[in-house]
Design goal:
Blueprint (H helix, E strand, L loop, with lengths): L2 E4 L2 E4 L2 E5 L3 E7 L9 E8 L30 H26 L4 H10 L5 H8 L6 E3 L17 E8 L2 E8 L10 H17 L3 E7 L18 H12 L4 E10 L4 H5 L2 E5 L4 E3 L3 H8 L5 H5 L1 H8 L4 E3 L2 H13 L23 H4 L10 H5 L9 E2 L8 E8 L2 E8 L5 H17 L3 E5 L11 H23 L4 E5 L2 E3 L2 H4 L9 E4 L4 E3 L13 H14 L2 H6 L12 H13 L18
Parallel strand pairs: 8-9, 9-10, 10-11, 10-12, 11-13, 16-17, 17-18, 18-20, 19-21
Antiparallel strand pairs: 1-2, 2-3, 3-4, 4-5, 6-7, 7-8, 14-15, 15-16
């Protein structure tokens, strides 16, 4: 008996099943299920929540994937060594950026924050809040190299860590950076954290210590759709989605920052250092001539005893994070028991990935060498191995999580695009997350003859088909740019515009419409060629990209397997939230 799925309907034999979130109805067809058929209600049944089946034990199908050959060919040794030299230079730049970010706003700002203001540093706050330091920090280098100066970590830390065993998104202002002032990149980073939380249904914890917007750049912070106000819109939408949100007021919440705790479901405030007000004491004095202390205007006692804006009063910061951990423990999740099954490590060292990260497109090696160093036991079940060989598709596992892999292994040709489209739809049909390893061609294919024009037309249509498949696939998608991210090919490989759950860059990656050195056919004069190539060289760098938050962070090649595993665990957690199907109105405070 065949079953055809049509969005919210299923036709099964001569029965039409109408599915809604809370219930489903079965209609009976008096004759053949074609146009003109008469459908009548047969039964109406209550749809049982998926949670009622979670207590049943489950067992994954055993893997019979073959081992992929990851051995180097002697002829490729010189390419590997050139890539390795470039990767070591990129790694050094990565470590320099990391050191700069770890210093926050500098020694003077740190001393003022800890001694005069008696506050805890942002990373120490996270140590008190999270179970451990093994969290996934997102876009740590955002804010570096911007036209208005360096804003280390964009003035706030965002990432995903465990609180009482539950993966939670966090956003923590770093008041040592420009006094906690919000710059355009700060807003962009906070909004991205909210989007990730919504995509993956992650509880959100805000550690608020903000001085409000940086007024000289207000035109880039306030007026537009994806500016500051979107933060509060997202808070309301997340509450309607039943995504829990908790705020800890561990510093100043001035102006727009005051809405973050008041729109959260529960809020904690720290005595003497936590304040909430739209306008601070200086503004009150300027407007009325009255002098008032921050504590009297909007301190912890006022908001916990009089206004009711917060729910928990903490004497010290460590108590505030203990309150927060207790709040998270009240959330309605049923986490599975820890799986003690031994995970197969790759047969080849992940350190080899440093030499497999291409310094340029011409130094790309067979992408199977990379896959063999990422997957469990270096096992990989290839799909359509003999067709469209410039793209690699197939099934594998990373720390036990089944995935579909789509990896560039040359130009995205007509055949490769059709193959990629087929495989993406197959994974979507089977609810298997997709991992894209992106290394696209440095420039569009040239049209030098009528035959080439016809070939490029076919390629264009096939790439459009693959883009549609990627855009419409409802399964989680994670993209890692291992080389080039150029032109339209990058869209078909789930670039930033195609909304992957996570997107990471290797330090050697290049992100631009054209790769440096490939602009000759698109500009007229020698001077223009030099000027464009210099611009592309600077603006295509992975660090230029991540500074502007075009990705979720730069990761070292040897850390890729660990990062992918963490992302897959994070994505899977939403299955353990109970009763999430029920629709409710947004949570509104007093």
């Amino acid at each position: 008996m065949y079953c055809y799925v049509l969005r919210s309907f299923k036709i099964k034999g001569n029965k039409l099943i109408h599915i809604t979130r809370a219930s489903f109805s079965i209609y009976h067809c008096t004759h053949s299920p074609v146009s003109g058929s008469l459908w009548q209600p047969l039964t109406h049944r209550t749809h049982q929540p998926a949670a009622s089946h979670r207590c049943m034990s489950s067992r994954r199908l055993p893997s019979a994937f073959p081992i992929i050959d990851g051995a180097f060919q002697p002829a490729h040794r010189h390419v590997y060594e050139a890539n390795l030299r470039n990767s070591l230079i990129c790694q050094q730049k990565y470590l320099e950026h990391k050191e700069k970010v770890m210093k926050g706003g500098g020694e003077n700002a740190i001393a003022r924050h800890t001694q005069r203001n008696r506050k805890v540093l942002v990373r120490d706050r996270l140590r008190m809040l999270l179970d451990d330091e093994d969290y996934l920090e997102l876009s740590p280098f955002a804010g570096l190299g911007l036209p208005y100066g360096d804003i280390p970590a964009a003035g706030c830390l965002t990432g995903i860590g465990k609180i009482n065993g539950l993966w939670c998104m966090f956003s923590a202002n770093d008041a040592t950076v420009k006094g906690g002032t919000a710059y355009p990149i700060t807003v962009k980073k906070q909004l991205r954290a909210q989007v990730v939380a919504m995509q993956n249904r992650l509880p959100f914890v805000y550690l608020v210590d903000s001085g409000g917007a940086f007024l000289p750049l207000q035109s880039e912070i306030f007026p537009d759709k994806n500016h500051g106000g979107r933060t509060f819109y997202n808070e309301a939408v997340m509450s309607a989605m039943k995504i829990p949100q908790v705020s800890v007021v561990c510093g100043s919440c001035t102006a727009g920052g005051a809405y973050v705790p008041t729109m959260s479901e529960e809020a904690v405030i720290v005595h003497r250092i936590g304040t909430i007000f739209l306008g601070g004491p200086p503004l009150v004095k300027a407007a009325t001539g009255e002098e008032v202390s921050p504590e009297d205007l909007g301190g912890a006692r006022l908001h916990s005893e009089v206004s009711g804006c917060v729910d928990h009063f903490a004497i010290a910061e460590n108590e505030a994070y203990e309150y927060t951990r207790n709040i998270i423990s009240t959330l309605n999740y049923e986490l599975p028991e820890e799986d003690d099954t031994q995970v197969e490590e790759p047969l080849y060292s992940t350190n080899d990935l440093m030499g497999l990260a291409p310094r340029c497109y011409n130094h790309s090696m067979d992408v199977r060498l990379i896959v063999s160093r990422l997957t469990d036991g270096s096992r990989f079940q290839e799909f359509k191995a003999r067709y469209g060989t410039t793209i690699l598709t197939g099934f594998a596992r990373i720390e036990g999580h089944q995935i579909g892999v789509v990896a560039n292994n040359g130009e995205l040709t007509y055949e490769a695009s059709l193959k990629g489209s087929h495989f993406v739809q197959l994974c979507d049909q089977r609810d298997i997350p997709l991992i894209f390893l992106q290394n696209t061609a440095p420039e569009p294919a040239h049209t030098l003859s009528q035959a080439k024009a016809e070939s490029n037309t076919n390629r264009l249509k096939a790439q459009g088909s693959m883009m549609s498949a990627v855009a419409c696939a409802s399964v989680p998608k994670i993209t890692v740019v291992i080389g080039g991210c150029h032109g339209g090919d990058s869209y078909a490989m789930c670039g930033r515009a195609f909304d992957p759950n996570f997107l990471f860059l290797w330090p050697n990656a290049r992100v631009s419409i054209l790769a440096p050195g490939h602009s000759d056919a698109f500009v007229q004069t020698e001077e223009e060629i030099i000027q464009i190539n210099e611009m592309l060289e600077e603006e295509s760098s992975a660090f230029f990209s991540t500074g502007r938050l075009w990705d979720d962070g730069v990761i070292l090649p040897q850390d890729t397997r660990k990062v992918l595993s963490k992302c897959l665990k994070i994505i899977k957690q939403q299955e353990y939230q109970l009763s999430r199907e029920k629709i409710r109105t947004p949570f509104l405070r007093l």
